[in-house]
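Good morning C.,

I know you're traveling, so I'll keep this short. The sequence:
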Amino acid sequence: MGESAIMHLKRHGVNTDLILRGSSNLGMYFVETGFGGRPSKVLYNRAHSAITRISEDELDYDAIFKDAKWFHMSGITLAIHEKCRNVAYRCLEACEKYGVTVSFDLNYRSRLWTIEEAKPHFQRVIKYVDVLFANFFDINTMLEIPVDPQLETMEEKRLDVAQKLMAQTKVQYIFGTDRTVHTATDSSLSSYCINRNGSVFKEEPIRFSIYDRIGGGDAFSSGIIHGLLKDYDHPKFALKFGLATSVLKHTLYGDASVLSEDEVMEFINSNGNAAVQR
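The tokens, ready to paste straight into the viewer:
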């Protein structure tokens, strides 16, 4: 199964030279797909998997990060095991050493750990982060950024905690999505970005039918990162590209988006949005 996973990555042009082999079984999860009014269910089988046996001394951090441009991490990695967290912290220290841009998706999963267990680790990581994927709950509860009690709308509260967080950290952008669930196979998704200057950028909701929802959040993050790598100073393109990538991922079976940039751009330019230049 490990070889199968590596071949999947290779097939899509991902460099696998630094993958560590050995240890125990590959972590897995099982999905019961929802339909109509019945939501999907996920069962994790990650305990004692190979990644939980990793040692922080197994990696050559200088070799990995000295020529790197971007490092992305999910909060799920922090939840899996203490050894994973130790490796993650070493990676973040290497990013700081070599000036690598760090993006982080909090991705809190209550089935993996409690809020109280997660808080100190999220709060330790945030000081390294340049680009954050998080919603109001993540920032207010997990990162413990207080909100002005006089604010009423979610947009006001979201901006308030975002600006307070950015004042305390080096976070440059905060990205997020808003989903309206009509049925298990019918949703609307919009996206937003808040930058360090307090400017708010939004993409209007796109309604779509769902073939497979798994991986939609990761597709959003990957689309945003792709857009920022093209033009870090102007998040509007990244926001549009990230939303389109996520929507399209919902039309693909499996947990990874395998669409080309041209296919995403074609979707953007054929769905009523103003033409976007690459």
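Safe travels,
E.
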